[in-house]
Amino acid sequence: MLIGASNKGRKLNLIYKIDIIKNMININIPTLSLNISNNINFINDLSNNKLINIRYKKYLWKIHIGAIYIYNTLTKKKEIFEPIEYPFVRIYHCGITPYDYSHIGHLRAEVSIDIIRRILRFFGYIDIAISNFTDIDDKIINRANELATKDWQSIPRNNIRYHLEQIKRLNNLPFYINPLVTEHINEISEFVKDLIDKGYAYTGKYSIYFDVDKYKDYGKLSGNKKEYWDQETNVLEDKKNPYDFALWKFKKDGEPYWKTIIGEGRPGWHIECSTMSSRYLGKQFDIHSGAQDLIFPHHENEIAQSEARFNINPWVKYWIHVGLLKIKGEKMSKSLKNIIPAKDFIDKYGPEIVRFYFASYHYREPIDVNEDSIEQAKKNYNYIESTIKIIVSNIGNLERTFYLDQKNIEIFNNMLKYEKEFIDNLRDDFNIGKATVTLLELTKYINRYVINSNIFTLYYKAYEFYKNASIIYGLWENIFCNNKDNNINQIINLLIDIRKDLRDNRLYNLSDKIRNRLKELGIELLDSGDKTIYKFS
């Protein structure tokens, strides 16, 4: 798009499209101005008009920002994202069962969902995201037995603290709440009782079970047919069918339990997430996320018990599942002794590199973690960071642009093309992996055509792009807001001015001394005509 040439036509096209909609829905709409920013509130208000058919609401919103497409595990296809209550996006992410230290697979899932939340915010949505901790479970009880400790609560408590510390190091946005199962026992027991009352659950000797045959849509998420599998094989004699699953496990000697309206015992695995998500996000919400290995049986069972209780279909509109990791081509497992604790991984490579490494892949893509791929991510990260520092450090010294020649107009327009490609990748199922490829291509272009141009317009476009990218990636943000760095930049710019005066007065020995001393300190001066910029080497 040429600067100025097509903006008016684009805005007129917007008005033309809305005029068509005005005629279709026959409502009184004021005339729009050519200033798109003045029309944004109008479009939002119009989209909320209850008289407008939903298909026209969708069309109006696409005029404003374009559609986001999400791959929905439930439907096995990409769909236009339409939250239940715009602009809010309610998200439930399946958190960890803290029977042990979290590992790099957990880091990957957390970073992926964090970036999705940031992308949604970039497009103007307001996410309300929560993530649970399963602090009572068979695995926790087994670990307490292995450690021969009666203080089973200390196991999840310590591992939750460990997990949150590592996530904080990665600069993840906090969840609004991290509900614990043990804090929601009453709500869980009420959920189970409601299923019993509605005929979806029955009581056995050892547990209360969900009657899968009573729920006709079972298997719609995973595609698994109930006839070919079973759950909890150790209690088959206690169940109507091998594929029924436990909602509530009755008290056993030596195990923690709670007194409730459905008896003494503790929750099954799946009921907790249905209970806590509906408590905080409502009977229906927008996005449920988790690792791909949770699709079955966990998420399949969540859907069954939730849709049975609330009589709503679908319970969740969009299901997002994060790809799994391999270590040097092999699946992570205790038997192979290749599980990498989260802290060890971050300590070795640094939080920024770990975050950027996971951001180099689409969230559904499996990752084979190996030294070569991490080293490449490190090189890419450092290359982008050094370019951002050059732009941020030098933009304040450039004079405003009063005229652009045709060559620089072309450079500017090419930067816009890269930016559009970057944004289009984000819209395509949050494809941060492809967006990262575009980010690197644009960075190469900036180094080739912008860095030595000393043209404010080009620097400013690069500055604005990188600033937005820093928010989306959760990286490089300190470069834009670090006051200490700003003071250093001012000192360096002062030395550059002094050096220029020395050169103008032919005091080359002194000017060279400043350049050489700065280089020893890791600051390289780049002379281009009568202008000098710098970068950190």
Automatic annotation (TrEMBL):
Q: Where does ATP bind?
A: 334
What Gene3D superfamilies does this protein's entry cite?
Answer: Cysteine-tRNA ligase, C-terminal anti-codon recognition domain, HUPs
GO CC entries: cytoplasm
Q: What is its main location?
A: cytoplasm
Q: Name one GO biological process term.
A: cysteinyl-tRNA aminoacylation
Reaction catalysed by this enzyme: tRNA(Cys) + L-cysteine + ATP = L-cysteinyl-tRNA(Cys) + AMP + diphosphate
Q: Localized where?
A: Cytoplasm
Q: Report the cofactors.
A: Zn(2+)
InterPro entries reported for this sequence: Cys-tRNA-ligase, Cys-tRNA/MSH_ligase, Rossmann-like_a/b/a_fold, tRNA-synt_1_cat_dom, tRNAsynth_Ia_anticodon-bd
Protein family: Belongs to the class-I aminoacyl-tRNA synthetase family.
Report the protein name in the record. Cysteine--tRNA ligase
